[in-house]
Amino acid sequence: MHLLSADRVTASVEGRTLFADASFGLTSDDQVGVVGPNGSGKTTLLRILAGDRQPDAGSVVRRSGLRIGWLPQLPELPDGTAREVALAGDPLAEPHEAERLLAQVGVDPDLPVRRSSGGQQRRVALARTLLAPSDLLVLDEPTNHLDVDAIDWLEEELERRSGGLVIVTHDRYVLERVTTRMLDLDPPAPGRPAEVVWHDGSYASLLEARAERAAQREQSAARARNLLVKEAAWLRRRPKARGTKPKARVDQVAELAQAAAGDPQSRPLELGTGRVRLGEKVFELEGVRLTRGDHTVLDGVDLGIGPGERVGVVGPNGSGKSTLLHVLAGRLEPDAGTVSVGRTVQLALYEQEAQAPPQGVTALDTITDVAAYVPLPSGETLSASRLAERFGFEPPLQHTPVELLSGGERRRLALLHVLVAAPNVLLLDEPTNDLDLDTLVALEDHLDGFGGTLVVASHDRYVLDRLTDRTLAVEHGRVTDHLDWSSYRQHREARQAVGAAQRSSQGGQPGSGGADGSADRSAEHNRRRQAARRRARALEQRLEKLGRRRDELHAAMADAADDPPRLLELQQELDDVDRELAEVEDDWLELTVD
User: 229: Cβ–Cβ under 8 A, 6 or more apart, which residues?
Assistant: First the structure.
């Protein structure tokens, strides 16, 4: 069933054209994921589709009687309890259905909305949007401020619902599971706005299509570089009688140079990992206890985090993940116990709610306030302006007042502000909220090579799987240690199953035998985790050594091209190295991949 049509839609913000001449239609069978860089216009496009904003040019024609469920990033909610606000979206809905949805997103139905946090208000707004019947759901970052269980539930809810869907989310697992079409706002280039590119298929297939387009651009850039060399040679050989270069030829060389440079956003972001090398100790917590009013957030926590560890922090909303990060960062003093931080630690904390900079301060100002130049692993330095450009801030955007940036651009700037300091310990609290997928990929690519200690509190399962190899679960004041997110989830499900079996048991004491057995299994699991992690690190070091030796052999074989006996000897050694590399890689994969 046809729902709406967009005809040559154009939108601008503060004189900057976001996208132009976008034309497409939506049906009730379309499950559309919208992706693109921060500032490309994703939120603006969703607002136009939902009728929350008019386009600057063009039109949107909606089917008569079309019911649209609209979840904005910053919802405006009436006063009342969460239950009352949710029911206000559909007066005919049953209260028990509103309570069911609120429970799924982790909100008490009796919560006074006006006195709740921004995250709680977004969850109430999500419940209200899902409660009301709709033909088209338009959701802008619905997974923000949801814990992993709620995100799992939301995926199932969206799969179950009938009707059209348009969604912006940074959660790649959600995109892969619930969408069948992708609307890709191709990054703007100098002199042109973002382009709307449609792709039939999932997010993974979109990435494959992007890779093909990038390969084509690289081929074009390579051809341009070859032509550039020829053009430069022609200019150097110009006839002596001519006093100036022909202007057409000079302009052509300039155009070729620009084409040969390729896409600046495709170049990898590489920052230093701290000006001071980490020692053997990073964090040690002993008996840490911290309360907020009558609520115990951390209760007798013993924890050690060493140099180079990559730690994920998980747990339900309100369990104390952010509190733990603030304790590590020295922002909160525990009521009891000790927190010991290594002498060489230089940490940076990326918070969920970044402090707003003063009015009129430009994006570049916020970076140069930290450092005008940034150290690179090569020993060279990079200017703040060049770094900002590599992180998606083109020169005009660098000089834009921060209050005129989009919400996603401000989050991206806050993240860059942290990375510029070149810490050797990074604490990231929900880093994926409001960041576009391209920025997330760049961040993950950078953190892959980060040599310091990384602690990430996140509900994003992809980020946890991608970046961490140890998981700390914060629940009921306790912090438990697990190999990864999957093993934590299995442990929790097994614990819930044991509890359910004990409750349904007809004889004996409910806890007889279960607690001790669970503790023994947990201790054995932790021993296996430590052994597996040590083995994985040893294998990684062996892989690096074998890789370097393989490169050396390739270079030696090139030098020995005219010496057949030496070449044969080197080839035999290379075969041995390749064979061992394959074996070590297989062993490493068994330890690190489920």
Answer: none
